[in-house]
């Protein structure tokens, strides 16, 4: 019974990691996109003024 519980916990942790890790990656990409988008807008403003 203890081994079955251990397998269930390991499976739960694995499934949680499979869900959480991609979400963290997507959140990081979203933040990176927002930061680079602001930098691109500033560069465009400088080009239009010049």
Note down, in words, how this protein is organized:
This protein is mainly α and 50 residues long. The protein is 96% helix and 0% strand. The chain contains 1 helix and no strands. 0% of the residues are buried. The mean pLDDT is 88.
Describe this structure in a few short sentences.
With 50 residues, the chain is mainly α.
- Estimate the global geometry from the Cα principal axes: rod-shaped
Mean pLDDT over the full residue set? 88
The helix content, as a percent range, equals over 70%
Uncertain parts: none
Structural class: mainly alpha
N-to-C series of helices and strands: H
Count of beta strands: 0
Instruction: Note the main sheet.
Output: none
Q: Determine the oligomeric state from the structure.
A: single chain
Strand content: under 5%
Terminal CA distance: 74 Å
For the CA atoms, what is the radius of gyration? 22 Å
Number of helices: 1
How is the topology of this model organized?
Elements: H1 2-49
Keywords:
50 residues, mainly alpha
């Amino acid at each position: 019974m203890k081994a079955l519980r251990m397998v269930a916990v390991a499976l739960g942790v694995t499934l949680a990691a499979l869900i959480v890790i991609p979400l963290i990656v997507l959140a990081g990409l979203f933040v990176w996109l927002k930061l680079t988008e602001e930098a691109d807008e500033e560069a465009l403003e400088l080009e239009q003024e010049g």
